[in-house]
Structure formats: C-alpha cells, structure tokens
Amino acid sequence: MSNVEKQHLLTAKQMAEFAANGFLKLDEIVPKELNDAAYKEQREYTGPGGQYWNESKVIREIFELPQVKGAIQSFVGRSPIYDHSFMHIVRAKHLKGQFYHADSVIDTRPFGFDIQAFYFSHDAPDEMGPTLVLPGSHLRKVSNGSIARYKNIIGQQRMVSKAGSIGFLHHGIWHCAQPNFTDETRYVFKLRLRPGQEQRSLFNTDDYDSPEVRDIIKKAQHRWCGDEARVNQIQIAKFWRYLCGDDKVDASFEGALSRMGI
Amino acid sequence: MSTTRQQILILHLHDPDLESRTVAWALYDSTIPKGQLQMNTGDSNEPPYESVLDAMRDGWNVIQLPVMPIFRTGFEHEQGHLPYEYVLERKVTIQ
Fold it and tell me: N or C: which end of chain A has fewer CB within 10 A?
C-alpha cells in the first residue's frame, strides 16, 4: 500500500490522452544514473526474462521513484497486484516483426484494466524497432492473436523513446515488437499490474471536465476505425466516465450518451 | 506449360463501398521463398492502393467480400476486428 503526493499523480489531460489512445508515454522520467545502471545490468543478464524483476535491485528502485509510482497509482490504485513481468529483447539485425496481438486473453471486464509499463533503459530510435502500437484499439474485443492477419494499419506508431522513458499501455491495446535494423540489442522491460481497487478517480482529477480535457476525448475518432470511428469514440467516452468516477460526464460524439440516456 | 503462384492481398476499407479508402492492408506472397521475409508488421504507413477498386484496376481479383455487420440490441457499441475486409488474389507466372 502506498500513497504518493498529488503532484506525482497523472493530470486529467494525461489521463484523457490515455483514455483516448490506450497508452501514455512519459518521456525521460527515470534519471540517467539509473538508466545507465539498468542498461548495463540488462546487457549482462543471462537469466530468464521472467525472473529479472525478482533479481534486479535497479529495476525495483526505478519503479519506486515517486513519479513512476504516481503514474501507476493513477492507473491501478494504491495497492496494485503484480501479474507478471518480462525483459523483452530484440537482437541486433533481427528483421522479422512480431505479429499484431493483444496481450493475454480476451478480457471480460467492461472497463477495468491492467496496466503494462514498458521501460526503456536506453535510447530506442525508430530503426531499433520499439514496440508498435495502434492508438485507440484498446477497448475492442479481440483475442490475443486473432488480429495476427493484419500487417499495417493507418495511424500505427512505434514508441520511439529516449532512455528513461516509460510507456504505460492498456492491456487491450493492439501491438507488436518490431524489427531491429541496428547493430545493438534492443531491451524493454515490461511489468504488468492489476488494479487493487476500482479504477475510478485515481488520478489528479482537477479540471477533468474542462473544455481542454473534454476536447481530447471528443477528438478521439481514429482514422483506422473508418465508419466505426464514432462508435469507437463513444466507447472511449464511456471509459472516460469510468476513469473520472463520474457517470454523467459526457464527451461522446454529439452527446450520444446523454441523448440515449446512457 | 507455365507455372503460377498465388498472391493474396487483404484490404480493410473505411466502409462497405469498394471505392472507400483503405485503412489497413496485408500481403501474403507465395512467390517469396520460405524463410524469406513477407510483408512485415509496421513496414509501411501508406497503403498499396487507395481502395479495392484501385486494386481491381491494377489486376487484382476480389475473391471475398465482407458480410455486413449485424448490430444486436444491447451490444450496439461493442467492437472487435476490422469489419470491411476484402480478400484479393493475383496469379503470378514464375516460369
């Protein structure tokens, strides 16, 4: 159980971006000395990827940083439950991209979610193949590799990152590892946490219904959704209600939630 | 006698109009030897054709049209896979 200071919680604007896109990348929030130590350790680590979390003091120290704990608390509360972790490695010149998938299995929670933190200890430029994500795909019902037929989707984004950045991904987002065209191995440490409480009003909710924040949700009509973009946006607006802990806030397309009495 | 191989192009469109814009695409090409790279995830940001109709104009044959979605009461806002998926085929002569 922990409780971070309000200044370290995510802002309403940040949380709206997460609701709209299914991920939020916090750039360079881990200091250089910890990144250097983690990168060195990762290059020398020979154990199984699933054990790294249990064997590394450095990675624990990183996830104890107040700015990291603040983000985690904003997503999954004060008592998150460890699900699993893995040190993912893409070797130099590994040129095959991973198949598009959503992690684990199809999830039956209407709006509850696990958070997956992707920590980059070193710079991960585009040619190094940082994880590819599809913004706005997180609330759709697919089952792990049931989207593996897809190869390219407009709006897809590689999480190009500087050392010390952490991407926080909704468990349902469509994503895949990418080819590494460089001569250096690419590392990313993934930590999956389950919520220890209902995920309502966990972030800094100041101004959550301001025009600026509402606009982020209203504009979340992703081009790849085509004709379904409006309905996809309505799902995002419902998710936003859940995150805000306010079942009346309405940032849906044309106020559809209010119109339909939802 | 010539030998042919099949290429399969999958285009996902904005809506069921075959002239609507492509939002996702994949190519599976049997002329590429086993072990060599096919189209990779994330390897392009621009579709090979703007629409299914454009692909047809370039010699691709449509072999599957999507079934229209059914919107069930109580599940109108539920979404999953990309709905407007077209499968196209081209035969390539290899010798």
Answer: N
Chain B residues in contact with A152 by the CB 8 A cut-off are 24-26, 39, 41-45, 47
Take residue A94 and report the two structure tokens written for it.
């590994």
The complex's ipTM works out to 0.97
Going by the DSSP 8-state scheme, the letter that residue A161 receives in this structure is B
What is d(CA A174, CA A22) in angstroms, rounded to the nearest whole number?
Answer: 9
Contact, A186 vs A130, CB < 8 A? yes
Q: What order of strands is seen across the sheet that includes strand A23-26?
A: A23-26, A165-170, A115-120, A186-194, A81-90
Residue of A nearest to B23 (CA): A224
Of the partner residues A140, A176, A223, the one whose CB lies closest to the CB of residue B41: A176
Q: Which residue of B has its CA nearest to A142?
A: B80
Q: Where are the beta strands (DSSP E) in chain A?
A: 23-26, 81-90, 115-120, 132-133, 152-153, 157-158, 165-170, 175-176, 186-194
Contact assessment for residue B7 and residue B30, using Cβ atoms and an 8 Å cutoff: yes
Residues 213-242 of A with CB under 8 A from B: 223-228, 231-232, 234-235, 238
Residue B4: count other Cβ atoms within 10 Å of its Cβ: 12
Prediction pTM value:
0.97
Is some CB atom of chain B closer than 8 A to the CB atom of A94?
no
Query: What does each C-alpha distance from A215 to A89, A96, A238, A250 come to in angstroms?
Result: 38, 38, 15, 11
Residues of A in Cβ contact (< 8 Å) with B75 = none
Tens of pLDDT, residues A39-93: 999 999 999 999 999 999 999 999 999 999 999 999 999 999 999 999 999 999 9
